[in-house]
Automatic annotation (TrEMBL):
Residues 413-488 form the AMP-binding enzyme C-terminal domain. This is AMP-binding protein. Residues 8-355 form the AMP-dependent synthetase/ligase domain. Pfam families: AMP-binding (PF00501), AMP-binding_C (PF13193). Transmembrane segments: none annotated. The lineage of its organism: Bacteria, Bacillati, Actinomycetota, Actinomycetes, Pseudonocardiales. SUPFAM superfamilies: Acetyl-CoA synthetase-like. It comes from the Bacteria. It comes from Pseudonocardia xinjiangensis.
Length: 502
């Protein structure tokens, strides 16, 4: 089921969906798409988006989903790097003219042969609805289902990282790496044909792709929503009979806020799996008390898909203390030159079947083949400690760490600050001090007027028994924290802002 904020809902059976995939594959073939060609797609969470990506795979082409938040400067770099021959986009979305922007850069992209638009196409653009949806291209491409063959270890999907800690990279995934990631969650969670999974994350992102493939492999039902608010998300949860919600903590918080903290009537909802960032501790009882579901946590990234998940045999509140154990086919390695403690977490490396074949720099074009470095171990850039049950607890990104020899446990401090009634939202960010060290600033979205003061925050944390040098030495106030499309706080923007305002 696909919900569009402006048009209601659309239901598609598996047979109907498969028919669209075949039709779209025929349309792409008519546009000259052949094995190895790159088909870029920049679309909202509409049913056509995933069918199109599957159609590209059907032709053994390379699918390249791109977030709708990406603007022309970055889009041009991505399309040039990939040598995309077809780009499918929307005429306008969230107040931005995507089709017009693509048209303005197209003349600088000689390999881009076709621009396809869902909506109102202009001159030189192909109307998706008439060419892809309404023209019966089924059977027009020479790849028959019975004798189709493809190499599952060839690059089939390119997904770009957000670049919040460095140059954005394209993660080159194969059908095997994506399959390994998608099947791993079903291996440990009760997920089958009677399941209805909803994620507000973009189909153009690894979470959306991982979710969509997991649903197809299980024969389950998938729910899409093209626009987000807590109230709309709540209506979709109730109206779709969702059994499993997969969402970052900020999305879950929005739903709970829309309910007003009172228990909701969502009898079908069994689990809420938080992904993307560490779960704030207070969210665990809220999910249980308000949504009536169990909260599970998990960690992954664009380059590896799903890495860890908590399980049903873990303690009920374990998501507040752990990001889970490694999934099937995934190995973890915490590395440090000293003993690993909460104050001195280890750097997290992973190796396994879901790790991408290679990465390529969006701007530099530098290609790094995973298997050719460190015996296949991939440096995630994350810092973590053991959770005591064979899993890990993330302590932040190496680029986000605050401190020197001893590191401030950013996630723990943020979780405690969020419990303060004067704090609506918060990010702990490092800023340089005069002697060359680094101190912590609490960037706060205040919940009260006047806003909570630095002394009040420090006293509050101290009263919780928190180590003194963990406490912020500066506070700044903002109306909202800058977040990317998956709800992660863009701390690199806050760090630059703190330096400029020092």
């Amino acid at each position: 089921m696909a919900y569009r904020a402006d048009e209601g809902s659309v239901r598609l059976s598996y047979a109907e969906y498969a028919g669209h995939v075949e039709r779209f594959a025929g349309a792409l073939y008519e546009l000259g798409v052949r094995p190895g060609d790159v088909v870029a797609c920049q679309l909202p969470n509409w049913w056509q988006a995933q069918a199109l990506l599957l159609a590209a795979t059907r032709l053994e082409a390379v699918a390249a989903p791109i977030m709708t938040t990406i603007r022309p400067r970055e889009l041009e770099r991505m399309l040039r790097l990939l040598g995309a021959s077809v780009c499918v986009t929307v005429d306008e979305w969230a107040g931005f003219g995507h089709a017009a922007a693509l048209g303005e850069i197209a003349h600088r992209l000689p390999e881009l042969r076709h621009r396809v638009v869902i909506g109102e196409p202009a001159d030189g653009e192909i109307d998706f609805r008439s060419f892809f949806e309404e023209t019966p291209w089924e059977g027009c491409h020479p790849v028959a289902l019975d004798d189709a063959w493809e190499d599952p270890d060839c690059v089939a999907l390119v997904l770009f990282t957000s670049g919040t800690s460095g140059e954005p990279k394209g993660a080159l995934h194969t059908q095997n790496t994506m399959y390994a990631s998608a099947i791993s969650v079903g291996d440990v969670h009760d997920f089958g044909r009677d399941s209805v999974r909803f994620t507000p994350h973009a189909l153009m992102h690894i979470v959306g792709q991982d979710n969509a493939l997991a649903v197809l492999l299980a024969g389950a039902s998938m729910v899409l929503l093209d626009d987000w608010s807590g109230g709309l998300g709540l209506r979709v949860l109730a109206g779709s009979g969702t059994t499993d919600l997969v969402a970052g903590p900020s999305f879950v918080h929005d739903v709970i806020a829309a309910i007003g903290g009172k228990p909701a009537c969502l009898p079908a909802l069994r689990t809420v799996r938080c992904v993307g960032t560490t779960v704030p501790k207070q969210l665990v009882p809220q999910v249980s008390g308000v949504l009536g579901a169990r909260l599970l946590s998990g960690w992954g990234m664009t380059e590896i898909g799903t890495g860890t998940v908590t399980r049903s045999d873990d303690p009920p509140d374990w998501a507040a203390h752990s990001d889970g154990r490694p999934v099937m086919g995934m190995e973890l390695d915490l590395r440090s030159v000293t003993e690993i403690t909460k104050d001195r977490p280890g750097r997290l490396f992973v190796r396994g079947s879901g790790v991408c074949l290679a990465t390529v720099g969006r701007d530099s074009g530098e290609l790094t083949v995973t298997a050719e470095h460190d015996d296949g171990w991939y440096d995630t850039g994350d810092l973590a400690v053991p959770d005591g049950r064979g899993g890990i607890r993330l302590m932040g990104r190496a680029g986000d760490r605050i401190g020197g020899v001893f590191m401030i446990p950013v996630g723990d401090v943020e979780s405690e600050l969020l419990k303060n009634p004067g704090v609506e939202d918060v990010a702990l960010v490092g800023y340089p001090e005069s002697d060359g060290g680094e101190l912590a600033c609490a960037v706060v979205v205040p919940a009260t007027e006047p806003p909570v003061t630095l002394d009040e925050l420090r006293t509050y944390l101290a009263d919780q028994g928190m180590t003194e040098w963990y406490l912020p030495s500066r506070v700044e106030y903002v109306d909202a924290l800058p977040r990317n499309g998956n709800g992660k706080v863009r701390k690199e923007l806050l760090r630059r802002w703190l330096v400029d305002t020092a």
